[in-house]
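FIELD: query
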Amino acid sequence: MKTIIGKNLLEKINTLFDFSKFSKIVVLTDDVIQMNLISQIGLIKQSLNRQLTVITIPSGESQKNIETVQKIWEKMFDKGLDRRSLLINLGGGVISDMGGFAASTFMRGIDFLNIPTTLLAQVDAGIGGKTGIDFIGIKNGIGVFKDPIGTIIDVETLKTLPKRELTAAFGEIIKHGVIFGREYFNLVTSKKPEEFDQDELIEIIKRSIKIKSDIVKKDPKEDGLRKVLNFGHTIGHAIESLSWKTNNPLLHGEAVAIGMIIESSLACPSQPILTSEVRIRVAEQIKKAVINAGLPTKIKITNSEEILKIILSDKKNIKGNILMSLPKRIGKVIPNIKISLEKIKSAIDTTIN
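FIELD: result
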């Protein structure tokens, strides 16, 4: 899989991949992206110089479900797509995840290309070969592992990104720093997210992608090492799912930030490397980074039992055991740490406001 990062890439997309082999090309996007990036969609059409169909769905995490996928499949059949067709996913994490899933299951699988347009999708959902939809309130409860033919990251698309979404992406970026090392952690926490210029963002995107890609190459199906990328996600996904029922749902990166704070506070008696002293020191560093980035640190959900119920359904659990990836230090995360519900509840209760 080829990943291309830079500026003004969409106007020369025809030079980046061989599109001549595809019988039909369809772009999947949402109504907000279509409105904000209408000129970029025009550039794609102009560069490819061939008939292009656009499928537009409503924006938002609430659309990431089997009903929306059914509508996408219907439109793909209506447009006469065959097994040599290509689906281009132009949008944020919802489009990347759901478009990849729709393509991977249509006629038992057609090729897809990701063009993530949010910073979060550029460092997370747009790469790594995971596709999926939300199901019965469980984040990415249904999905498949399938790589796109490539990913195109054009930082020009970030110019229309709201500040909140730019900031939210740093939940995942800070996580990459916790996983990879002190030097990268210090870099991505050295400024407020909005203070990084375009060239600095390109460097951050490149490095975050390399961190994730190197891990995924060694463990594509998440049998072991790749689980470190789930730091902050067991609790993060649960509170994100519950927040969808509120008037102000969390963005994914915001939920991951809170999840990292809670999970890093958990000690594990069976792991001497995760003693209380180490836990407190690392947790304080992570919380400080989250605060400095302008990310939330508290859960606006009153019932921890609801959070625990979702955690018990987490796809990373094995034989009923809740397994987490926890940091030993900045730069070292250990997967498959068994944590009791009692410890999780105690940690969550201190974070509810």
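FIELD: remark
The chain has 13 helices and ten strands.
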